Amino acid sequence: MQVRRLVTVLALALMTARCGDHPTAVAPSLAPAPHFLRWAGQSAPQFRVGNAVAAGPLSLDQYAVSFWAVRGESRSAQLNYRDALGDTSHPFLTLTITDPVLLPDSTELAEGDSVLVTVTIDTDKVGVTLAPTGLQFGAAANLVIAYGGADGDMNGDGLIDDTDSYIETQLLGMWYREGGDSEWERIPATHLLEEKSFLVELPHFSEYAVSW
Predict the structure, then answer these.
(1) CA torsion 15→50→36→29, rounded to 10°?
(2) End-to-end CA distance of the chain
(3) Angle 34-102-200 (CA atoms, 0-180°, nearest 5)?
(4) CB atoms near residue 175 (< 10 Å)
(5) Domain residue limits, the chain
(6) Are 123 and 63 in contact (CB under 8 A)?
(7) Per DSSP, what are the bridge partners of residue 137?
(8) 78-99 exposure pattern, b = at least 16 Cβ within 10 A, e = fewer
(9) Residue 31: pLDDT above 80?
(10) Is the pLDDT confidence value at 137 over 80?
């Protein structure tokens, strides 16, 4: 089934627990590159603004949403997509930031200082780029990214069968890379199988994708 997605952007004030340890890349796969999970359908997903309630300036331009992250305050962006029947309740991404501490140019943020964060959705594979790339956190940012938009076709062959079930339960994970010239690496993530999503604690920003 071809999925048409409508991003609903919601900035919330959320309380998040502080995390002690930062994730690091786990042992790379034997494969030279990951198998990216793709959005269902033959065309790029179509994103539009549904509604917005902002805890600070927030905008959606094409496939990107921006909001202000403030050191010492919890800020969150939630994105949903619309299916072929028009249901807009399907979650795609939730990003919660409490403690941005260091800009990519090594400028340290004081309590109450803010930085403009941008989430750019990949319209081909199920993934996002979080900017500014290299923004670092004291308490890790929390990223939840759902892969239901792949419609169960994990290997992209147009069929949903036991192979897809095996990939989802045994192989699927979260991968990242620092930039376009760097290699993809698998990172630790909690697989929420019933919700078809992954929870990742981020020490810094880069590019992320659901892959196997």
Answers:
(1) 0
(2) 22
(3) 35
(4) 25
(5) 10-211
(6) yes
(7) 100
(8) bbbbbbeeeeeebbbbbbbbbb
(9) no
(10) yes
